[in-house]
Amino acid sequence: MADIYKWVDENGRIHYGDKPGNDTSQKLNINENQTTRDADLIRESQRKTLLDVLSEERQKKKREQEKSAQQSKDYKIKCDLARKYLSSIQSSNYLMEETADPYNPKILSAVEHQAVTDKAQNDVNHWCTG
Predict the structure, then answer these.
(1) Is this structure's pTM higher than 0.85?
(2) pLDDT band with cut points at 50, 70 and 90 for residue 39
(3) How many domains does the chain have?
(4) Are 61 and 82 in contact (CB under 8 A)?
């Protein structure tokens, strides 16, 4: 604990400091009481609690940012795949669907081809605008 000094300047003002201000400075005897120690302990406990809460919030925000970044990467990958699939469907003259006979696939009709194209377009819209 530092020493505390009290002095009066030439204008009659009272000053306090941890070093003597002039030749008339008096060293004050200040005893810390239990109430002050208790208040300091309470203040320290509150400070620690606040720091813990802030640390938790920072960690939570960091986890959310990492999750969002990963989700953005996943969406980009799925968007690229959906666009490639749509492009391949649009550039094909006909689509085939597997049947029980692997050597005899079913060729989709124009209506079925359009339905597959529409679904692929919906997938592109979903993954590429998210």
Answers:
(1) no
(2) confident
(3) 2
(4) no
pLDDT (average), residues 75-97: 93
If asked whether residues 95 and 59 sit together in one domain, one would say: yes
Domain span holding position 117: 31-128
Q: Which residues make beta-bridge pairs with 28?
A: 4
State whether 39 and 25 are in the same domain. Answer: no
Q: Are residues 105 and 118 in the same domain?
A: yes
Note the pLDDT of residue 57: 93
Task: Please write down the HEC assignment for all residues of the chain.
Answer: CCCEEEEECCCCCEEEECCCCCCCCEEECCCCCHHHHHHHHHHHHHHHHHHHHHHHHHHHHHHHHHHHHHHHHHHHHHHHHHHHHHHHHHHCCCCEECCCCCCCCEECCHHHHHHHHHHHHHHHHHHHCC
